[in-house]
Design goal:
The protein has 108 residues and is of the alpha+beta class. The protein is 31% helix and 20% strand.
């Protein structure tokens, strides 16, 4: 995945589902392109909204607060383009939420 991937203290990735590994590989390359280290800020840990896929290992949050607004849009676009259509990419002010849409994939 590259030497720039970091995991925020307390983040649990044990139990992360196989489709999410592709997200880490793709995102790490994109973050490197923009000169930033990829930081995973949430995995199976934390409190999330009802229906969240985090507890099932099908969602992660990736830090984006160090990007400019223009870069945030570009990074989000690149993630959408490089990941298959089963992935949902949602940009927030401090992170990008990426989940494997289990309904599209017919899993959950």
């Amino acid at each position: 995945m590259g030497e720039t991937l970091k995991i925020k203290d307390g983040v649990i990735l044990q139990g992360l589902q196989l489709p999410m590994r592709q997200v880490l590989i793709v995102a790490d390359k994109i973050w490197k392109k923009y000169g930033q280290e990829l930081v995973v800020t949430a995995g199976l840990d934390g409190v999330h909204s009802a229906g969240s896929l985090h507890p099932f290992g099908y969602a992660i949050d990736l830090r984006n607060r160090y990007f400019t607004e223009a870069q945030k849009k570009e990074v989000e676009f690149e993630l959408r383009m490089k990941l298959p259509s089963e992935y949902d990419v949602i940009r927030h002010s401090t992170h990008i939420h990426v989940e494997y849409d289990t309904k599209k994939a017919g899993i959950l």
